[in-house]
Specification:
The chain is of the alpha/beta class and 244 residues long. It is built from nine helices and eleven strands. The chain folds into two domains: 110 residues, Rossmann fold, CATH 3.40.50; 125 residues, Rossmann fold. 33% of the residues lie in helices and 23% in strands. The strands form two sheets. A six-stranded mixed β-sheet has the order 3-8-7-4-5-6, sandwiched between helices. Helix 5 runs parallel beside helix 6 and helix 7 packs parallel to helix 8. The longest helix is centred in the first third of the chain and has 13 residues. The radius of gyration is 20 Å and the shape is elongated.
């Protein structure tokens, strides 16, 4: 049983070793795309003026790196008064790479759009917010909350997905492929325009990738996450159990 997973090799391989030992699975990790920051030229096309914003909302480390890279390229010195609203504590802590954390106004939620919106109390409603996003991402779950609160904001694309060269992969040699992002599907179609699914079973991880796979005409053998399948490794395990 050969399984292709469209991600980098994880730091913790223990859950995947269980799949190898219990099911004889042969696992291959291969990212289908990379996240890259937009260049200053690409960002200027969005007509967003960075000095206009007094607060910024981050949901990923990639967006943080891209923001400070753009600021440097565009010679914008981020003021110490800037307020940072982050999706999780881990994302907030990553700001230490670029700023003196203890001296700044930093707030973080629990990973949901609602938790980010809840941070923006009456005390912060006068700010002008920049929502840092990635190309093609769905910001509606967050912006619907910002609209409901009557906040002044703009959505700025700071990062983009760049397809990897997958032509060295023999997809026909795999029994299962795990797709984790809509950009995985885009990369698959770009690299293999004549690809036919055939007997390849697809496991999806994330609602957005389910929608993209179905719109592209692929069938999905197992959809995750679920209350039982909260990780990629668990999704694979449950699918393999169901086929025994």
């Amino acid at each position: 049983m050969k399984i292709l997973i469209s991600q980098h090799v994880p730091s913790n391989l223990a859950p995947y070793e269980i799949l190898q030992n219990q099911y004889g699975a042969e696992l291959a990790f291969h990212p289908f795309f990379l996240i890259e920051p937009l260049s200053a030229k690409e960002f200027r096309a969005e007509h967003i003026n960075l000095p206009d914003y007094t607060a910024i909302i981050f949901s990923s480390r990639h967006a943080i790196d891209a923001y400070f890279k753009l600021c440097e390229e565009m010679r914008f010195k981020v003021p110490e008064t800037m307020k940072y609203f982050c999706s999780t504590e881990a994302v907030a802590m990553y700001l230490q790479k670029h700023i003196v954390y203890r001296k700044r106004k930093i707030f973080y939620g629990t990973g949901t759009p609602a938790s980010i919106a809840a941070l923006i109390t009456a005390k912060h409603k006068g700010e002008k917010f920049l929502v840092a996003s990635s190309e093609g991402s769905n910001t509606a779950p967050l912006t619907s909350h910002l609209d409901a609160a009557g906040l002044d904001y703009s959505v700025g694309v700071l990062v983009k997905a760049v397809c990897q060269d997958l032509r060295g992969l023999d997809l026909s040699s795999y029994d299962i492929a795990v797709m984790c992002n809509p950009a995985d599907v885009v990369s698959l179609r770009e690299n293999f325009p004549d690809f036919r699914q055939g007997e390849l079973k697809l496991i999806s991880f994330g609602k957005a990738v389910v929608r993209t796979l179905e719109e592209t005409g692929f069938s999905i053998a197992f959809k995750a996450p679920t209350p039982e399948a909260t990780s990629i490794s668990k999704a694979i395990e449950l699918y393999l159990q169901s086929t025994r």
